[in-house]
Amino acid sequence: MSKNTNMVIDPDKKGLITTAYPHLENIFEGRITNDAEFIGLKGEELDKAIRVLAYCYDPNSPLVSQFQDLAKRKDRACQIVGYEYKKIPNFYVVAFLQKVIKIREWTLITLMEKNFDELASISNEPIKTAEVADKDILTAVEKKSKLRVEMSAIIDEINIRKAKFFFNDEDLIKEESAGWRPEDIAKLTKKAS
Q: Is the entire prediction scored with pTM above 0.85?
């Protein structure tokens, strides 16, 4: 392959990719499971995984223009690098997209989520019926109803943007939301106590 100087991460760099791009060390940390087992990649394994991800997801990768189909692009990237895509943990793919390749798009999604949370907070404020006139109560109810419509539209847009962001890959979408579901937070709380 030719040199990919327009790419965010040049997968043809000589030596360890984390030496050429030291900030990647912090992005690709492993995880510890509930059974205290390390999940992640190190050394040459991590190096090859990052190269595959760069070939697959960087918009300036030559493979993006050659292979519109992501599955075919993954296969070709793995052939070039000499690595199996299935060895790359999904949370590495999510981190690569969020923190390396699509930073601005992810920032927009998180801002939309924050906006949703702010609207939810406003909507959750109780209407103080004892202190206001009936017409003011109706106005407050109408405002809350409009907020819920806006919140619904925000949810729809977030879901559309996330699907596009993660190339409609359900596994990546689930991975991104993992750990933030109530049952995941409960597990973390139990483990900490």
A: no
Q: Which H, E and C letters describe 10-59, residue by residue? A: CCCCCCCHHHHCCCHHHHCCCEECCCCCEECCCHHHHHHHHHHHHHHHCC
| Residue from 41, 30, 33, 32 nearest 87 by CA | 41
**Closest Cα to residue 86, out of 96, 95, 75?**
75
Domain ranges in the chain are 1-101, 102-193
Helices 170-177 and 134-165: crossing angle in degrees, nearest 10, is: 130
Q: What is the pLDDT of residues 46-69, one digit of tens each?
A: 999 999 999 999 999 999 999 999
Q: Are 89 and 46 in contact (CB under 8 A)?
A: no
